[in-house]
Design brief:
This is Ankyrin repeat protein. This protein is mainly alpha-helical. It has a single domain, classed as Serine Threonine Protein Phosphatase 5, Tetratricopeptide repeat (Alpha Horseshoe), CATH 1.25.40.20. Helices cover 44% and strands 7% of the residues. It contains 5 helices and 3 strands, in the order E-H-H-E-E-H-H-H. The protein has a 3-stranded mixed sheet with strand order 1-2-3. Strand 2 and strand 3 form a beta hairpin. The C terminus is likely disordered.
């Protein structure tokens, strides 16, 4: 794989290996994949109707992947675009996904939701 804009199908062996490394917290495998395929850091994974980046994979619901913070740092250090937008039915960035995960985790832990200014917090249903 050369550097540049790369689109991989979600069934591509390289995409599968990268996703497995991220979800398994296998930093050595992820670093090896990125070293052997520099364009992987900015590649888009396309399922035929939408595409996302490996940072989206790392921050995807439900999250809780081993070595999550280090995985994000490895991807960003390899050149992943932290502002890359999902393409498809929405245009969220990996930061949107990470923030949403944190919001849900906080809601479960505290039993309340921090509401926008001027609105009372809600109790979970």
């Amino acid at each position: 794989m050369t550097t540049g804009s790369v689109v991989l199908g979600t069934e591509d062996p390289l995409a599968i290996a990268a996703v497995q490394a991220i979800r398994g917290g296998d930093l050595a495998a992820l670093r090896r994949l990125l070293a052997d395929n520099p364009a992987l850091a900015t590649a888009r994974l396309d399922d035929g109707g939408a595409s996302r980046t490996l940072l989206h994979v790392a921050t995807d619901w439900p999250g809780h992947y081993p070595n999550g913070s280090t995985t994000v740092a490895v991807l960003a250090g390899a050149g992943a675009d932290v502002d890359a937008r999902f393409t498809g039915p929405h245009t969220e960035t990996p930061l949107h996904w990470a923030a949403a995960r944190q919001w849900c985790r906080d809601r479960r832990r505290t039993g309340t939701v921090t509401a926008p200014a001027g609105r009372p917090p809600q109790s979970p249903t």
